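Task card 7
Instruction: Convert sequence to structure tokens.
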Amino acid sequence: MTQHTKLMFAAVTIATLFLGACEPAATTTGPLASPSPKTASSQDGIPVVPVVPVPARPKDLAAVPEVVQAPPVKAEVVKTQPVDIVICLDASGSMSGLIGAAKQKLWAIVNELATANPRPKLRVGLYQYGGSEARENGYVVCKCELTDDLDAVYDKLFEIGTRGGTEYVARVISKALSDQEWSEEKNALKLIIVAGNEAATQDPTIKLEEICKKTIAKGIMVNTIYCGPVAAGQRTGWAAAATWADGQYAAIDHNNGTVAIQTPHDKEIAQLGSELNKTYIAFGRDRKKSANQSKQDMNAASVGAPAAAERAVAKSGKLYNNSSWDLVDAQKNNKDFDLAKVPEKDLPETMRAMTPKEREAYVATQAANRVTLQTKIQTLNKKRQEHIQAEMKKNKTDDSKSFDANLRKQIRSQAEKKGFEFEQ
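Output:
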């Protein structure tokens, strides 16, 4: 052994003894702990530096999934473009099929938009009209204002019942136009989508043509979906309304047109979607919204396995954003967010006893776990979509009269005119 090598070995030995005196002999396992230190040895005369353990994580985090040395969460730098969509659904007594289709297919519509580039900065609003509520407002009720909280929209969708029978299409368009805070960006895609089955011209107060022209003057298009034969919708003002507001018209079979094909992958995808919930870290004044996430999983499952799978896919996609209450999304989607500046009282109890570095590591661990689950869901969804297409081809299934197929077709063509490109 040369003199130089002897000196190196002596230095490493001293360092090992010093570190051993500073560190506890026992270590715990988990994302915030490293393996126990190994005894220094040499290979080909070169000393090997021992592994030094990092501080153990608190005992109450023992159940946290293990991800070793996860990279820190950094804000994504992506090009986005606003998309504001207000959906107005007829809630009169004959429209249970329409409401059911919306519950079944809302996440499929979100998943279609998730394939667009630039990334849509999506906000959705929801109205019901034609029911028995709010007679003083022409039976128009705003269930949810424009928001990026898609769970909130889905929750309100499940509150819509069908009863009554006074449908004022012009009134709901007017309320959506005046009451919502629409994007003011010039490249924003802004849509009001109205679906129903009675004459669109029966409002005694507001003229359909006038409100449609006023709407497009604000850069907001109106798409109409008539629940019935094409010609009937043309006779009763539905097609004209879309024309006046530079939108698109479609006619659907709201009772029999919805196509929902179950696949062998649905159950596993939905289970992975539930696992995703464990990676969310609720904080701040909106932390109670985390409970709504699981509630909407159950709502989707209540209308069938295909809907539950579509929701899980949406949760693994680009448009599902819970930055208002989840630390991972907040760090990923907000370049100005600083975890170190979050008051301790706004953190979950499990994080309050942690050091700043431990908090960063914990968030990074959950973010890494989330990406792993999302990747698995996306991989399974490719197989799921292949199965659906094969079944539709084999059975010669026609979805041209379905609510979601027409809505997706309308939104896609209008988004492309605004400069969006779709992956598929």
